[in-house]
Amino acid sequence: MDSESVKAEVIKQVKTQYVMDNARQLVEKINEHCFEKCVPKPGSSLSSSEQTCFTQCMEKYMLAWNQVSATYINRLQREQ
């Protein structure tokens, strides 16, 4: 492998790690935020209202995350 190939491979690995880290952070934030909001008294299982709240909260959080990500990516592409 020449130095450009090695450099490209390292960049690819860094980007992959960055994406994985972002996904992990997203899951952690969703769990933290939505659990605190929807499950005031944790028990052995979730009630149907807690499940509904948690699902709706996750969907809203994911939509917001996707919108911010898309806007950020578009901005980066315009700046290149």
Structure characterization notes:
There is one protein chain. By secondary structure, this protein is mainly α. It is 85% helix and 0% strand. It has two helices and no strands. The chain has helices spanning 3-38, 48-79. Helix 1 packs antiparallel against helix 2 (48-79). The longest helix has 36 residues, at 3-38. The chain is elongated and about 60 Å long. The two termini are 28 Å apart. 0% of the residues are buried. The mean pLDDT is 88.
Would you kindly provide a brief summary of this structure?
The protein has 80 residues and is an all-alpha fold. It has two helices and no strands.
Oligomer: single chain
Please, how many helices?
2
User: What is the helix/strand order?
Assistant: HH
**Residues in helices, as a percent range:** over 70%
* Mean pLDDT over the full residue set: 88
Rg? 19 Å
Q: What fraction of the residues are assigned to beta strands by DSSP?
A: under 5%
User: How many strands?
Assistant: 0
- Let me know the largest β-sheet: none
Low-confidence stretches: none
Net shape? elongated
| Structural class by secondary-structure content | mainly alpha
Straight-line N-to-C gap: 28 Å
Jot down its keywords.
80 residues, mainly alpha
Topology, pairings included?
Elements: H1 3-38, H2 48-79
Helix pairs in contact: 1-2
